[in-house]
Amino acid sequence: MAQKQIIKIHGRDNVAIAIHGIPAGTQVTDGLFARQDIPQGHKIALRDLPKGGEIRRYGVVLGYALDEIKKGDWINERMISLPKLPDLDDMAFGTNLVTDLPEAPVRTFEGYRNPDGGYAGTRNLLGISTTVQCVTGVLNAAVQRMRKELLPKYPNVDDIVPINHAYGCGVAIHAPEAKVPIRALRNLVKHPNFGGEVMTVALGCEKLTVEMLLDESDSKPENVIILQEKSGFQDMMGSMMEMAEQKLKRLNERKRETLPLSDLCIGMQCGGSDSFSGVTANPSAGYAADLLVQAGATVLFSEVTEVRDGVHLLAERCVDNQVGKKLIAEMKWYDNYLAGGGVDRSENPSPGNKKGGLSNIVEKAMGSIAKSGKSPIVEVLSPAERPTKHGLIYAATPASDIVCGPCQLASGITLQVFMTGRGTPYGLAAAPVIKVSSRNDLKDVWKDLIDLSAGDIADGDATIPEIGMRLFHMIVDTASGKYKPWAEAYGLHNDLCIFNPAPIT
């Protein structure tokens, strides 16, 4: 036997994952032979397991064997029952606060200082907010013209970004949970990459009025266009072009300057995860997160269902009881939200996750948490809330990639790191997205979509700190405008799917 064929994470584990596909009959280690073909990333039993026996990976119980499992068997999601959820009413807070973080080699970046003194911009964008989906068609037509006729005149402006969304009317605008989408849209208006310029397109008869979307100081004629007050399409277009040009002139005066990393807000998200995510890409992102936090930056990680089964591990990293209680409150809210819809956490993982070797949400959660590193959690946010502190922050968003991203944007991230094992051409218009693959196989296939592969860790050719340090430098270079990720270069921008737990009427 030459090359290492499996990865066992913890001494108590009774399963390991295949680094590459293992044909049936292959001798994997001394005394261990594959009884079936083991697909890449999938689990092989390291010993005989009785019916009802614990299946362990990451040193935790993933679940229980539905039938007897033999040593060398391929273990997949159909063979495991879920364990009980961790009890939220019996959590210890602040018992594992790590302050000895790796030293960041760089402590500044080249960014755009904002007039409100908040997070700095990594890009110089004109953001155009909307009150309702009804205006999207007209705005998109206007943005096409703006990019063609206006943007070339203002070379210091990177792009024009319409904040289109499926909200604003036909909704229970006064329902208690309507605060979530309204908060998201209000915070997106003030995104740090928009340079303090406010431009809003409204219809005139929507439920989400201009006054509900904008601060009173911003709700004025030079910032707002109401389409129903215009004399047809050409008047609408002319008004938008004129307003946009005034905003572009001011944005064009912005210049990058050397700023401390404490002015950065970075988002960590994983999507299309596989069994390598928690071994390679996510721990590397976690190491980069620790470097950023050590340098004073703010780092957000999210996805409620993807941490719920490991919430006790997060609780022990909360800096105090107040932060811990907010964490538990967000978990309980989401438990109730799922129960109200008649589902539970077993709806996650996705078919693609399972194809990549993830058997259930417990396994996915252990890998997902790894992207948070080891730093203490200084704050917990409800969906789309803005941080008030610097450091590692948990933002309680849904796990859906297309909803998590806009929630993080609303919380003020100016750059996102996106870990993937299965592959997705995901991107955001308002902030650059760095794509990190968990496997070299994915990087080899998607050479022009994946920015960095962490796959060398699985093969033993690199360490987590080495890949984490590379990612840290890529984050700083991207924030400084020195590196343009593939998704940004191609203009791969997902729709802004705003989380709306309130009823639609």
What is Rg?
Answer: 24 Å
Low-confidence stretches: none
Mean pLDDT, to the nearest integer, reads 97
Helix content: 25-40%
Number of structural domains = 3
Please state roughly what percent of the residues sit in beta strands, choosing from under 5%, 5-15%, 15-25%, 25-35%, 35-45% or over 45%: 15-25%
Question: What is the straight-line distance between the termini?
Answer: 64 Å
By oligomeric state, this entry counts as single chain
Topology:
Blueprint: E1 6-7, E2 15-18, E3 27-29, E4 32-33, E5 43-45, E6 54-57, E7 60-65, E8 74-75, E9 80-81, E10 108-111, E11 125-130, H1 136-150, E12 159-163, H2 179-189, E13 200-202, H3 210-213, E14 224-226, H4 233-251, E15 257-260, E16 265-270, H5 281-294, E17 298-301, H6 311-315, H7 321-340, H8 351-355, H9 361-369, E18 377-381, E19 392-395, H10 401-410, E20 415-420, E21 433-437, H11 440-445, E22 452-453, H12 456-459, H13 464-479, H14 486-490
Parallel strand pairs: 11-12, 11-13, 13-14, 16-17, 16-20, 17-19, 18-19, 20-21, 21-22
Antiparallel strand pairs: 1-2, 2-5, 3-4, 5-8, 6-7, 7-9, 10-15
Helix pairs in contact: 1-4, 2-10, 5-13
What does the model show?
The chain has 14 helices and 22 strands. The protein has helices at residues 136-150, 179-189, 210-213, 233-251, 281-294, 311-315, 321-340, 351-355, 361-369, 401-410, 440-445, 456-459, 464-479, 486-490; strands at 6-7, 15-18, 27-29, 32-33, 43-45, 54-57, 60-65, 74-75, 80-81, 108-111, 125-130, 159-163, 200-202, 224-226, 257-260, 265-270, 298-301, 377-381, 392-395, 415-420, 433-437, 452-453. The strands form 6 sheets. It has a 7-stranded parallel beta sheet with strand order 18-19-17-16-20-21-22, sandwiched between helices. A 4-stranded antiparallel beta sheet has the order 1-2-5-8, with no helix packed on it. Helix 5 links the parallel strand 16 and strand 17. The protein is globular, with a radius of gyration of 24 Å.
